[in-house]
C-alpha cells in the first residue's frame, strides 16, 4: 500500500518543484528572500563584532581608570617604606550587578610585590586591554606603569587590574541585540517593500497572461502594448506581429480552400453534364465525342487535384523537412525524358544544357523534381508548336543555377509577380491549367532557401531562373 502511494507523492513533489522553478514570480521571490537571509547573516556578524569592540573599549577604560586610582594611592613615607591605601572606589566601579570579581597587583620595577595577587598574569604591553585566564576564570586585564617619587633609583611601579568577563559580555549582548534589532527591522522593511514592488511590477505581466489565455481560438486582434511596462512592450509588439502573421495566413488558407473548392466544382459539374450527355447519345460518333470530352475534363480535375496535393506538401510545416542531396542535372535529365513525348507531339525542340559534372543541392528531392516538372511543363504548354525549349543547369560559386528558356509568348512584366499567386492565370491563356504550377515552384524554392525570377529570353520568350544553395 505504501509502495503504491510513494511514486505519485514523488511525482507531485517534482511537479511542484518544476512549477516553482519555472515561475517567474517564485524565482524573483526566492532571490529576494535569499538576499534578505544573506543580509541578515552578515548583519548578525557585523553587529556582533561592533558590540564586542565597544564592550571591550568600555571595560578597558574602566580598568585604566581603576589602575590609575590604585597607582596614585601608592606613596613612600618619610622612612622610605612604600605605602598603599587603595580607595574603595577603585574596585567598586566594577560592581555593576553581574557578580564580577576584580583582581589587582602592584609591583616595583624590579619585580617586588607591593600588594595584590602574586600569581596574576601581566599583559605584554601597558595601557592595552588583554583577555587572559587566571585561576580558570577568563578575564580582561590592563597594566599601567606609574612613576613614584622617592622610591630609589628606578622609581616606577606597575599596576595590573583584572576583571572577569560577566559585565563585559552582558554589555556586548545588550549592544548587539539593540543594534541587530534595529538593522533587522530595516532589512525586513526593505524586503517587504521589495516584495510589494515585485507584486506590483509583475501584475501587468500576469494581466497580459490572463488576456492571452482568455482569448478565444479565433481572436487574433492586437493586444494593447500600454498594458505592460515599457521594457515588456517589445514582447507585446512581437506577439502582435506574430498574431498578425497567423491572421494573414489563416485568411490566405480560407481563400485557398474556397478557391480550390470553386476550381473543383466547375469541372466536376461539367463532368456530370458530359456524362449525362454521353448516356443520352444514341449515335456512336457523338457518344465517342462526348466521352472524349468527359475524359479531358477528368484529366483536368485529376491534374488540379494532384497540383493541390503537391502545393499542400510544398508548404512549410506540412512534411517533415527532408535533406536529400540531389543532382539537379540528373533530375532535369529525368524530367526531360518524361516530357520528351509531349515535346515530340507538339514538335518542340526540347534541349538540355548541362555539363557532366553533377550540381548538388540539398532539399526535398520529390519537391525539387516537382518544381522542375512544373517549369518545363509550362514552357512546353505555352510555347507554340514548332517552338524551342531549353533547360540549363550550371553552378556559380556556391549557387546552383537552373534556367528554363522558351521562345513562346513570355509573361508581361506587370504580371510577373502575380503569376506566382495561387490560381492566377494570365487572361486569355488558351491551354488548360489550374494556375498552381508557379505557386508550387515558389514554395519549393523558398523551402530550399533559394530564389526564382522571371525574365525575357533572347528571342522573345520567357526565361525562368532558379538559384539554390549548392552543396
Ligand atoms: N513559359 C511560359 N510562357 C508564357 N506564359 C507562362 C509560362 N509559364 C507560365 N505562364 C503563365 O503564367 C500562368 C501561371 O502559370 P502556372 O504554372 O502557375 O499555372 P498554370 O500553368 O496555368 O496551371 P498548372 O501549372 O497549375 O496546371 C499561366 O496560366 C500562364 O498564363
Ligand atoms: Mg503550369
Q: In words, what does this structure look like?
A:
The protein has 471 residues and is α+β, with helices and mostly antiparallel strands. The protein has four domains: 2-51 and 174-208, no CATH class; 72-167, no CATH class; 231-312, Orthogonal Bundle (Helix Hairpins), CATH 1.10.287; 320-469, 2-Layer Sandwich (Heat Shock Protein 90). It is 53% helix and 18% strand. It contains nine helices and 14 strands. It has helices at residues 2-22, 24-72, 89-92, 166-214, 233-280, 284-314, 328-345, 365-382, 437-447, and strands at residues 74-76, 82-84, 102-108, 113-116, 130-134, 137-147, 156-164, 324-327, 349-353, 360-363, 388-396, 399-406, 451-456, 462-469. The strands form four sheets. A five-stranded antiparallel beta sheet has the order 4-3-7-6-5. Strands 9-11-12-14-13 form a five-stranded mixed beta sheet, with helices on one face. A two-stranded antiparallel sheet has the order 1-2. Helix 5 runs antiparallel to helix 6, helix 7 packs parallel to helix 8 and helix 8 packs antiparallel against helix 9 (437-447). The longest helix is centred in the first third of the chain and has 49 residues, at 24-72. The model is unreliable at 1-6 (pLDDT under 50). Bound molecules: adenosine-5'-triphosphate and magnesium ion. Adenosine-5'-triphosphate (ATP) is lined by residues 303, 307, 374, 378-379, 382, 406, 408-411, 419, 425-426, 429, 433-439, 462.
- Bin the strand percentage: 15-25%
Unreliable residue stretches? 1-6
Q: Please tell me the CATH architecture of the largest domain by its name.
A: 2-Layer Sandwich
- Total count of helical runs of at least 4 residues: 9
- Main CATH class of the largest domain: Alpha Beta
What molecules are bound to this protein? adenosine-5'-triphosphate, magnesium ion
- What is the total tally of β strands? 14
> In angstroms, what separates the terminal alpha carbons?
62 Å
| Helix share bin | 40-55%
Rg over CA atoms, rounded to whole Å, is 51 Å
Biggest sheet descriptor? 5 strands, antiparallel
- The side-by-side strand order for the widest beta sheet comes to 4-3-7-6-5
Q: What is the molecular shape?
A: rod-shaped
Order of helices and strands: HHEEHEEEEEHHHEHEEHEEHEE
Q: How confident overall, as mean pLDDT?
A: 90
Number of discrete domains: 4
For CATH, the homologous superfamily of the largest domain is named as Histidine kinase-like ATPase, C-terminal domain
> What name does the CATH topology of the largest domain carry?
Heat Shock Protein 90
Specify the structural class: alpha+beta
Amino acid at each position: 500500500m505504501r509502495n503504491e502511494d510513494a511514486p505519485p507523492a514523488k511525482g507531485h513533489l517534482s511537479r511542484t518543484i518544476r512549477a516553482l522553478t519555472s515561475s517567474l514570480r517564485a524565482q524573483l521571490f526566492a532571490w529576494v528572500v535569499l538576499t534578505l537571509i544573506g543580509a541578515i547573516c552578515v548583519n548578525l556578524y557585523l553587529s556582533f563584532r561592533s558590540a564586542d569592540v565597544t564592550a571591550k573599549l568600555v571595560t578597558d577604560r574602566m580598568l585604566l581608570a581603576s589602575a590609575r586610582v590604585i597607582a596614585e594611592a601608592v606613596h613612600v613615607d618619610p622612612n622610605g617604606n612604600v605605602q598603599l591605601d587603595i580607595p574603595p572606589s577603585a574596585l567598586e566601579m566594577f560592581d555593576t550587578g553581574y557578580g564580577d570579581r576584580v583582581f589587582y597587583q602592584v609591583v616595583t620595577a624590579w619585580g617586588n610585590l607591593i600588594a595584590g595577587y602574586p600569581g596574576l598574569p601581566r599583559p605584554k604591553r601597558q595601557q592595552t586591554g588583554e583577555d587572559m585566564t587566571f585561576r580558570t576564570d577568563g578575564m580582561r586585564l590592563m597594566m599601567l606603569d606609574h612613576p613614584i617619587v622617592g622610591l630609589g633609583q628606578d622609581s616606577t611601579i606597575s599596576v595590573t587590574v583584572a576583571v572577569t568577563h560577566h559585565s563585559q559580555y552582558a554589555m556586548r549582548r545588550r549592544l548587539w541585540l539593540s543594534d541587530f534589532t534595529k538593522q533587522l527591522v530595516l532589512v525586513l522593511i526593505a524586503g517587504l517593500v521589495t516584495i510589494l514592488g515585485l507584486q506590483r511590477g509583475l501584475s501587468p505581466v500576469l494581466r497580459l497572461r490572463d488576456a492571452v489565455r482568455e482569448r478565444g481560438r479565433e481572436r487574433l486582434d492586437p493586444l494593447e502594448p500600454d498594458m505592460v511596462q515599457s521594457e515588456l512592450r517589445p514582447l507585446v509588439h512581437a506577439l502582435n506581429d506574430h498574431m498578425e502573421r497567423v491572421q494573414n495566413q489563416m485568411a490566405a488558407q480560407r481563400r485557398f480552400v474556397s478557391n480550390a473548392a470553386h476550381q473543383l466544382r466547375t469541372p466536376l459539374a461539367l463532368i456530370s453534364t458530359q456524362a449525362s450527355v454521353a448516356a443520352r447519345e444514341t449515335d456512336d460518333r457523338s457518344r465517342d465525342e462526348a466521352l472524349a470530352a468527359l475524359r479531358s475534363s477528368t484529366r483536368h480535375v485529376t491534374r488540379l487535384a494532384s497540383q493541390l496535393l503537391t502545393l499542400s506538401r510544398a508548404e512549410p510545416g506540412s512534411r517533415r523537412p527532408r535533406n536529400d542531396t540531389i543532382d539537379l542535372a540528373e533530375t532535369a535529365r529525368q524530367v526531360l525524358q518524361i516530357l520528351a513525348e509531349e515535346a515530340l507531339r507538339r514538335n518542340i525542340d526540347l534541349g538540355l544544357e548541362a555539363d557532366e559534372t553533377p550540381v548538388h543541392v540539398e532539399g526535398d528531392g520529390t519537391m525539387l523534381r516537382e518544381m522542375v516538372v512544373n517549369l518545363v511543363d509550362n514552357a512546353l504548354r505555352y510555347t507554340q508548336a514548332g517552338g524551342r525549349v531549353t533547360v540549363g543547369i550550371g553552378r556559380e560559386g556556391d549557387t546552383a543555377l537552373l534556367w528554363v528558356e522558351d521562345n513562346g509568348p513570355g509573361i508581361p512584366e506587370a504580371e510577373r509577380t502575380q503569376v506566382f499567386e495561387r490560381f492566377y492565370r494570365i487572361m486569355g491563356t488558351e491551354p488548360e491549367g489550374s494556375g498552381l504550377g508557379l505557386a508550387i515552384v515558389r514554395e519549393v524554392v523558398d523551402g530550399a532557401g533559394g530564389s526564382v525570377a522571371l525574365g525575357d529570353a533572347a528571342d522573345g520568350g520567357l526565361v525562368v531562373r532558379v538559384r539554390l544553395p549548392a552543396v
